[in-house]
Write a structure and sequence with these properties.
The complex is a heterodimer of chains A (about 130) and B (about 260). Chain A has about 130 residues and is α+β, with helices and mostly antiparallel strands. Chain B has one domain: Porin, CATH 2.40.160. In chain B, about 0% of the residues lie in helices and about 55% in strands. Chain B contains no helices and 13 strands. Classes of the chains: A alpha+beta (about 130), B mainly beta (about 260). Chains A and B meet through β1, α1, α2 and β3 of A and β5, β10, β11 and β12 of B.
């Protein structure tokens, strides 16, 4: 049997354990969404989107690549463009072409398919 | 001590999201229509035997909406001595299916997922494997814990080097912890992140061989590209049926189409 001493990984583990509480508090600030997250907004909601500028409040996106995944799925919807994300706030801003046949369910489905959860749609302008 | 190069082209369906380490699986899944090629090259140092192998994976990702992914891999095996006449190759395709059966997004940057995966390796026989993995991401921290079983295979072009290549079935517990070094907080302008990673693995072969390895590493992730490196070192080993690995350096790249 061989025994090797490895101080560096052990040190990393120790640091990670001691610092976790503070980290979560600073990066995962609560948002004003007064509802259970659950599975997010209904994916079969047929309500048409009338606003041309929206803020989508999303849960579960943890990385730059996650954003790209969500952008790809959102921009596959007809009339949806300009997806921009504030990762810290979990908020995607999108533009919807006037008259585009996009429903609330379409948006919830796109985010779900990307791997995340849409918990609120905020209409910014119509 | 001999040093061998294990080169890899790993086009891996499991490599969709961040906070996935280079060797430890994660319960992540690319979204439908997204293709993620991944290349992993490993340099392995060991004492005996005097021959080694180089492994190359190529996996084609087919991801379905239900969270099922199919992987296909090719392993090229060749020696890496400076004498290129020694070079030889072997193809060991893998077919893997993965189903993420649980996911719950708990907060803005807080989520947990679980997946099962399984498949076969095509060498002289069909060698099945099966695994279960749990992933949790909370703020700057990511944790993956996996448990897997695979049929042992017999190295047919030299003494066995890797766990599971000495003919005995392989049971493995793996875990990784990733910590986002930068940025401390995401903002509207965040387009990349740096992570420190630590991987640990405990493979047990039914012939009695086992080892415990630790691997510190680093991961850079942009909006489409990611680069990763990891140095894996055994902490404890009790190996008699195959080569005793002394260290392994893995370097990887993945992108998103």
């Amino acid at each position: 049997m061989k025994l090797h001493m490895l101080p560096l990984p052990c040190l990393l583990f120790a640091v990670s354990c001691s610092d976790s509480k503070q980290t979560i508090e600073t990066t995962d600030a609560p948002m004003a969404v007064d509802r259970e997250i659950g599975d997010g907004l209904a994916q079969d909601d047929p309500t048409l989107i009338k606003a041309t500028s929206l803020a989508l409040h999303i849960r579960g996106m943890s990385c730059p690549k996650c954003v790209t995944n969500a952008e790809i799925q959102l921009e596959r919807l007809p009339g949806v463009s300009g997806a921009m994300l504030d990762m810290g706030g979990g908020t995607f801003r999108i533009k919807v072409k006037p008259g585009a046949p996009v429903t609330r369910g379409n948006l919830a489905r796109a985010i779900w398919v990307a791997g995340f959860t849409l918990v609120e749609i905020e209409e910014l302008s119509s | 001590m001999k040093t061998q190069l294990l080169g890899g082209v790993l086009l891996l369906a499991t490599a969709a999201s961040a906070q996935e380490a280079i060797s430890v699986p994660a319960a992540t899944m690319p979204s439908p229509g997204v293709f993620i090629p991944r290349v992993v090259t490993q340099l392995i140092g060991y004492e005996d035997p005097t021959t080694g192998e180089t492994k190359t994976h190529g996996v084609q990702n087919v991801s379905l909406d239900a969270g099922i992914a199919a992987d296909w891999s090719v392993m090229l095996k060749f020696e890496t001595s400076l004498n290129f006449d020694d070079r030889k190759s072997q193809h060991d395709p893998h077919l893997m299916f993965k189903h993420r059966f649980y996911r719950k997004d708990l907060g803005i940057i807080s989520t947990e997922r679980m997946a099962v995966y399984g498949g076969v390796e095509f060498d002289d026989n069909l060698d099945p494997f099966l695994g279960l993995v749990y992933t949790k991401i909370d703020g700057r921290w990511g944790t993956n814990v996996g448990f897997s079983w695979e049929t042992g295979e017999v190295a047919n072009d030299g003494p066995p080097i890797l766990a599971g290549h000495a003919g005995a079935d392989l049971w493995k517990v793996q875990s990784s912890v990733l910590y986002r070094l930068f940025p401390e907080d995401y903002s509207t302008t965040s387009d990349h992140a740096w992570y420190a990673t630590v991987e640990t693995s405990l493979p047990y072969e039914e012939n009695g061989d086992w080892e415990w390895t630790l691997g510190p590493g680093v991961l850079y992730e942009g909006r489409r590209q990611a680069f990763e490196a990891n140095l894996r070192i055994p902490v404890q080993q009790d190996i008699s049926q195959r080569a005793e690995t002394e260290w392994a350096l893995a370097i990887g790249w993945r992108t998103l189409f």
